[in-house]
Design goal:
globular
Length: 66
């Protein structure tokens, strides 16, 4: 994982499960998806942190706007 500003992964519990988000360097590269449970959120976070294949295509990521 590169040590650069605005590159991170985060999650939060919602009424529908967990919102997971990642930012890849700038606001226009900030994406989110909702997953059903903590296991799915954990799996995505782990895959992202260890740069494992598959996390980018595992869920339908949507660009987040602020």
């Amino acid at each position: 994982m590169p040590d650069v500003d605005q590159v991170y992964f985060q999650s939060a519990r919602t009424d529908d499960g967990y919102l997971v988000e990642f930012r890849d360097g700038s606001p226009d590269k900030h994406f989110g998806a909702t997953v059903p449970d903590v296991r799915a959120a954990h799996a995505l976070a782990t895959q992202w942190a260890f740069e494992l294949d598959g996390w980018r295509t595992a869920v339908p990521w949507e660009r987040q706007t602020f």
